[in-house]
Amino acid sequence: MAIFGKDEAKAAVQLDHTLLPRHVAIIMDGNGRWAQRRGMPRTFGHKAGVEALREIIQYSDELGIEALTIYAFSAENWKRSAEEVGALMGLLLEYFTKELEELHKKNVRIRILGDIDGMPQGLERQKSALHAAIERTKDNTGLQLGIALNYGGQQEILHAAQRLAKRAADGEIAPEAIDKAMFEKELYTNGMPDVDFLIRTSGEMRLSNFLLYQLAYAEFYNTDTLWPDFDRKAYDQALLSYAKRNRRFGGV
Ligand code: IPE
Ligand code: IPE
Ligand code: MG
């Protein structure tokens, strides 16, 4: 049952800025099923998913959300067919080629979370487009847009541990000096606020190796809506749900 109507939902979050999450993370799931329900190939769903993403980035910026991290491609998604992976990588390149200047004008800072250089050979254009987007927007002060790509939460934590272990073995730091702040500096999200709110579309109730460290105290929101159908109204509903949460962080 909706307690507030759609406009009230928007008003509620806009009225009190303190009720908005600072950092929203989204597992954009359900593109394939969205397409299959229409008797179309999965890649058709990915195209529609990019449109939904464009709108949600735009809306996040309008609402004044500080950071938005989206799961675009996991380290495990390489298991998919060459055709699907190829289509996704094509869309990625197209997205950065088309949208970069627009995002830059909006003062958006693009961050890539994941192992860019570890992407398979043959994706050199994608790799350079990603590096160019980071470089072009690095001084921007508006929305921080984290794009998780070739990303795995376990891999991220392991890499952080390896780098710190190496520094300790080199005598640069003492093992006992490794604290939360030092560890967090080694994560892709370094400098971003803690994740407050995690949205997953399409009804799946799992993390799929997303931001395992960073989600420690995030609020979860799950909706059956498939990603290509996730629009401003659906986002309003999610944000309203967040605004009504009572976050305790272990307290009472
Ligand atoms: C999410 O949609 C997009 C990516 C993983 C890139 P899916 O492609 O996982 O769609 P479903 O879950 O198969 O419907
Ligand atoms: C998670 O979705 C990855 C992205 C949204 C990019 P998946 O569709 O890959 O997750 P599983 O396989 O259902 O756990
Ligand atoms: Mg999926």
Give the helices and strands, then pairings:
Blueprint (H helix, E strand, L loop, with lengths): L5 H10 L7 E5 L3 H6 L5 H22 L3 E8 L7 H24 L3 E5 L10 H14 L6 E8 L1 H17 L10 H6 L11 E4 L18 E4 L9 H12 L9
Parallel strand pairs: 1-2, 1-5, 2-4, 3-4, 5-6
Bound molecules: 3-methylbut-3-enyl trihydrogen diphosphate (IPE) (2 copies) and magnesium ion.
Brief rundown of the structure:
Helices cover 44% and strands 13% of the residues. The chain has helices at residues 6-15, 31-36, 42-63, 82-105, 124-137, 153-169, 180-185, 232-243; strands spanning 23-27, 67-74, 109-113, 144-151, 197-200, 219-222. α5 (124-137) links the parallel β3 (109-113) and β4 (144-151).
Structure description:
- A six-stranded parallel β-sheet has the order 3-4-2-1-5-6, sandwiched between helices.
- Helix 5 links the parallel strand 3 and strand 4 (144-151).
- It has helices at 6-15, 31-36, 42-63, 82-105, 124-137, 153-169, 180-185, 232-243; strands at residues 23-27, 67-74, 109-113, 144-151, 197-200, 219-222.
- It is of the alpha/beta class and 252 residues long.
- Helix 1 (6-15) packs across helix 8, helix 3 (42-63) runs parallel beside helix 4 and helix 4 packs parallel to helix 5.
- The chain binds 3-methylbut-3-enyl trihydrogen diphosphate (2 copies) and magnesium ion.
Bound molecules: 3-methylbut-3-enyl trihydrogen diphosphate, magnesium ion
Radius of gyration: 19 Å
The total beta strand count reads 6
Strand content: 5-15%
Output the strand order for the largest sheet: 3-4-2-1-5-6
Biggest sheet, open or closed, and with what strands and sense? 6 strands, parallel
Q: Give the % helix.
A: 40-55%
Structural class: alpha/beta
Unreliably modeled segments: none
Total number of helices: 8
